[in-house]
Design brief:
The protein has 107 residues and is mainly alpha-helical. The protein has two helices and two strands. A hairpin with a 5-residue loop joins strand 1 and strand 2. It starts with a helix and ends in a 10-residue tail after the last helix.
Length: 107
């Protein structure tokens, strides 16, 4: 079952790659990107789309990073508290569960 999922995943990746590659080949036209203060950048459409997509991913990841860090810190604190509680419970169980003197085994 894992090999089928692996093959499907790679086929999907290949299909996405070929669609994007065909998009790049069909859009070699130069576009003008008008920036601030009368600046203008002229580049192929594919390059503009790639730059904008990459900038969006980077800005999105940077915007979500503080929340990820807070959640990671909370998860680590929770795991540490759970481990400490489990160790305390195991220590109290081992000291209270054993009788002080064991009866001798009869043969």
């Amino acid at each position: 079952m894992q090999t089928i999922a692996w093959v499907i995943k790679w086929l999907l990746r290949a299909a996405i790659f070929f669609v994007l590659f065909a998009f790049a080949l069909n859009n070699p036209h130069l576009v003008n990107v008008n920036l601030f203060f009368g600046q203008r950048w002229q580049a192929p459409l594919v390059l503009v789309v790639l730059v904008v997509f990459t900038a969006g991913v980077v800005i999105g990841a940077l915007g979500m990073a503080p929340r990820w860090w807070r959640q990671r810190k909370r998860a680590q604190a929770s795991a540490h508290a759970a481990a400490t509680a489990q160790a305390a419970q195991a220590a109290s169980f081992s000291s209270s569960a054993l009788p002080s003197s064991l009866p001798a085994a009869s043969s």
